[in-house]
Predict the structure.
Amino acid sequence: MTTGTDPDPWRKKYFDSLDTLENEKLQFRAIETALKRVVGRLCTASLGLSPQLDQQIRKLQAVIRRDAVAADDLEKLTPALTEAIGALDPPVGSAPVIAQPAVKHPVEIDDSRLRSILTALLSELRRDSELAPQVDTLESKIATSLTGAQLPDVLATLTDLVGQRIQRIEGAKQEIEGLLSHMVGKLDEIGQFVAEQHHSQSQSQANSETLNTQLVGEIKAMGETMESTGDLQQIRQQVRHRLDSIDRHLQEFRQREATFAAATLARNEQMRSRIAELEAEAKRLHNQLQDEQRLSTIDALTRIPNRQAYEKRIEEELHRWRRFKQPICLAVWDVDHFKRINDTYGHRAGDRVLRVVAECFAGRIRTTDFVARYGGEEFVMILPGTQLEDATQLSEKLREAVAEIGFHFRGSPVSITVSSGVTALLPEDSAGAAFDRADQALYRAKQTGRNRCIAA
């Protein structure tokens, strides 16, 4: 490695890493703001149902208006809020009491929109592998519906997860800042070394010029003495004197050069050590960044690519498809009655079901195909170079393979089936349009009995 390597690419790389972390932090802040807005609308829509509930809702509104919402604050409100919601249900056998809302025009809550926001937030949180198990548990709770009684617990858990994620981003940012500062210090040492080397070379050149001047002066003086003096004895003495001076000049020159050589050798050894340390740190950071980048596109539960990896891959496939016009199909999958599995056998059984389904898919597709966990119990496949008829046949084989899995949990057999919607990419398609069409086909498959594949 040459010591004059430009350090700017390293600086840019690590400053880019800091920018990425800062952008993630801002993104989570924006999501937190959106959640507060959703909660505020839910609170507004719920006012007027009962005085007890109104009191708890106003407390919740006061909490979410703060700049920073702590999970503990939401946890403290949860029991009383849940009790107030439960009090709205009339006793068994009694006539229902119809409450007149105080708000003349209550805000209509779009449950699918709310679940979409929560799902997007959970997808972002799942990128942190250490938070993935908690995210999966929470996602299972809201997989089918989100009731008013569940909302406080869900929001409290989300707030806690977002806070953990922000703290981890801050920690990673501080770690990279420290490492960057350390590496910049090492690069400054290299710059100082180069400057000292340049100074040493200049000094060595000056010493050589001084020696040359001294030798020329001594030789010139000897010539003048010989021309001006006729006495042989005196000439001998002058020559001997001049030779002694030349010898002294050479010794002084060699001593200076030896001193410079020793100092240069010591600096070189020190710099080699610093460069080796810098290279080791750079390699470690490079590997760490590669690992983090790889893990950010892998689903922590199923160990197959996640939604982020899918979105990147589908854009690449769309670019190739528009260039080469080769057919591409998209298949969207959903595990049938997944909530029933969770409710009957527990979330651990649901997690194992997702893992075995992912293994079945990944083990039966071509190396050119792509499968990812899209979210919850939903998977998505990209099938390049495949016509719609062939993609439908492949989906049927995969569906049958899943149905034949002999899955048992704690000694009890668990039936697993999947449904699929398949579509071929059209010239005017975007990635979102193709996915929506396949997702609509999946919806029809589930509406018409599940455990089937429908092409669109």
User: Anything to note?
Assistant: The chain has two domains: 1-90+98-187+258-296, 307-455. The first helix runs from residue 8 to 46. Residues 1-90+98-187+258-296 form one domain. The beta strands are 328-335, 370-375, 378-384, 408-409, 412-413, 418-424, 453-455.
